[in-house]
Design goal:
Layout lengths: L1 E3 L4 E2 L2 E2 L17 E2 L3 E2 L3 E2 L2 E2 L3 E7 L6 H8 L3 H4 L20 E7 L6 E7 L4 E6 L5 E6 L3 E10 L4 H7 L5 H9 L14 E11 L2 E15 L2 E8 L9 E3 L19 E4 L2 E5 L6 E4 L2 E4 L5 E3 L4 E8 L5 E6 L4 E11 L8 E2 L4 E5 L9 E8 L2 E3 L17 H15 L4
Antiparallel strand pairs: 1-8, 2-5, 3-4, 6-7, 8-9, 9-10, 10-11, 11-12, 13-14, 14-15, 15-16, 16-17, 18-21, 19-20, 21-28, 22-27, 23-24, 23-26, 24-25, 25-27, 25-28, 28-29
């Protein structure tokens, strides 16, 4: 699409007449026009007033030099791309589908003067292709807006954010904050949340959640509070705490993956969907698309990683002297996952698949306590250390301010 950038001329006409009562001192002033004022239009740090502009997008398999050639940049100028340092611009990171804008001179050849490659909403690279090649990095300013948002859930946390015109990343952030205390596979109609946060905008377009400071999540008629607070300034890390100063972080996550559904629960008498016989199913099946990341629910050591009969690609993790977990039917393993490797809570250890005896993509997740299978959905998880007594007054003061934002009455 082509749009014409034009110069607007403002012409003012000032006429003044001065008359004197004395005939011997009578004088006239003639018409005096103010000089034309040029309206300068600046985009991406350059004066684009003299140019016409057109936009396009990088096609599949197309390189940046291919884009340059397509829009008419001389080959000897485009060749300068090969000499650019990766620190200036990494041509390998040009992505199909990303847009670019060409600013052309208003001459008979419509000669390209600048090409702007839009890497993201914020980051843009401006190529000056007049005579020789040079490039500058332009970042659009980001505006941070303070918000308080509320939503009631009818089907899922994801759908609630969409229905209420909220940034979808808000649902992801909330699921991370409450990952230890709320089972998001058990979300019910009527659950909901109020959250105090800041959101980043570029040109009135949301580009993501900045920080979540406090939240109240209502699940199964119970309120779960989360307050952001840093107990140790030297760590530069904020954690979330409940209304009593208890940590929301637990030894184990509630689930090893996000936003799926439970297709089969723990049972000692389930008819196997493949073998068609009644047998124990000492795990929980999470139906999810192939490739969905699967994470370790807690810190531990990988003690098994291999293809295991009906379980397909399997990873087994020993967390401590009491608990062991296993993740079955994986399509592939996570990076660096080998027997003997140590994993952190939330680390990707594999991806949902349908290997082994499986009728469709899902994760079969299992937990053992002291060597005995237990229901993962009923597993208790001890909390991390609470806020120390020396910091409690400071935390309560911060909590009081957050409660005002959330509309919580104490």
């Amino acid at each position: 699409m082509k749009r014409i950038l034009y110069t607007a001329l403002t012409v003012g006409l000032l006429a003044g007449f001065t008359a004197c009562s004395s005939t011997e001192n009578e004088q006239n002033t003639g018409d005096a026009a103010t000089p034309a004022v040029e309206q300068v239009i600046t985009e991406y740090g350059i004066n684009v007033t003299p140019y016409t502009a057109e936009t396009g997008s990088v096609k599949s398999g197309q390189t940046l030099s291919g884009v340059f050639e397509h829009v008419g940049v001389p080959r000897q100028v485009a060749a300068g791309l090969n000499t650019l340092s990766y620190d200036v611009f990494d041509v390998r990171k040009v992505r199909a589908g990303n847009q670019f804008t060409v600013y052309r001179m208003q001459d008979s050849l419509q000669t390209p003067a600048y090409i702007v490659y839009h890497g993201s909403v914020v980051n843009h690279w401006v190529f000056n292709v007049q005579d020789s090649l040079s490039v500058t990095h332009y970042q659009k300013p980001v505006t941070t807006v303070e918000k308080v948002s509320t939503a009631v859930i009818e089907t899922s946390l994801w759908d609630a954010t969409i229905k209420n015109n909220l940034n979808i990343n808000l649902s992801l952030e909330l699921s991370d904050i409450y990952a230890w205390v709320i089972d998001f596979f058990g979300i019910q109609k009527g659950d909901g949340f109020t959250v105090y946060y800041t959101e980043n905008y570029v040109d009135s377009v949301s580009v993501g959640i900045d920080e979540i400071y406090a939240a109240k999540f209502t699940h199964n008629k119970q309120d779960y509070y989360a307050y952001r607070y840093n107990v140790d300034d030297s760590l530069h890390v904020d954690f979330y705490w409940d209304e009593n100063g208890g940590s929301l972080r637990k030894t184990f996550l509630k689930a090893p993956l996000k936003f799926s559904r439970i297709s089969s629960k723990f049972s000692y008498a389930r008819k196997h969907p493949v073998y068609k016989v009644v047998r124990p199913h000492t795990g929980v099946d999470y139906a999810a698309p192939t490739g969905t990341p699967v994470v370790a629910i807690g810190d531990g050591k990988v003690i098994f990683r291999a293809y295991k009969g009906g379980g397909g690609h399997t990873v087994k993790i020993k967390h401590n002297s009491v608990y062991t977990t296993a993740y079955l039917h994986l399509s592939k393993y996570g990076p660096g996952i080998t027997v003997g490797s140590h994993v952190k809570q939330g680390q990707v250890i594999g991806y949902v698949g349908s290997t082994g005896a499986s009728t469709g993509p899902h994760l079969d997740f299992r937990v053992w306590k002291n060597g005995t299978p237990i229901d993962p959905l009923k597993m208790e998880s001890p909390a991390a250390e609470p806020i120390p007594a020396s910091k409690m007054d400071e935390f309560k003061a911060a909590k009081a301010k957050y409660d005002e934002k959330l509309g919580v009455r104490n």
